[in-house]
Design brief:
Length: 146
């Protein structure tokens, strides 16, 4: 599926950066990546003008920028990357995870989670799991996906 392949390329660019930030700083602020129509991948950051940004503020800024680019027909796919606490399948307690909201203009939307721990400054990434995305970036999908 070409849409999934495009999103996998975004994941392959974004996930290592999140891991680097965890290794270097023990955390990361929300960031993104977008695939232009020609397949070029561009990393995207956000700044809300605050010294200590709230993650949701940065997520909102990134989502708005992605929606604008999608509405203008400039984007093929987007990845919004943020830190969450989530209960992995088969687990009972929440754990830290890197979340990637991957959206494609061809009616593809998924959120992939990578649970992680940090031991002696080194992130250990667990098994990924995914859930359906919310199709929030590109115009409404066909009724099949609604």
């Amino acid at each position: 599926m070409p849409a999934k392949d495009d999103c996998d390329q975004l994941l392959d660019v974004a996930l290592p950066f999140a891991e680097k930030m965890l290794r270097d700083h023990g955390e990361f602020l929300p960031f993104g990546a977008q695939m232009l129509l020609d397949g070029e991948i561009v990393s995207v950051g956000a700044d809300d003008g605050e010294d200590h940004s709230r993650s949701q503020s940065l997520i909102d800024i990134l989502q708005a920028a992605f929606k604008d680019g999608a509405a203008d027909g400039e984007l093929l796919a987007t990845a919004l990357v943020y830190d969450v606490r989530v209960v992995p399948p088969g687990a009972r307690e929440k754990t830290d995870a890197i979340a990637l909201n991957l959206d494609h203009r061809d009616n593809y939307s998924v959120t992939v989670f990578f649970p992680y721990t940090i031991n002696d400054g080194e992130p250990g990434i667990g098994d990924a799991f995914a859930s359906s995305g919310n199709y929030s970036i590109f115009p409404s999908p066909s009724p099949l996906h609604a």
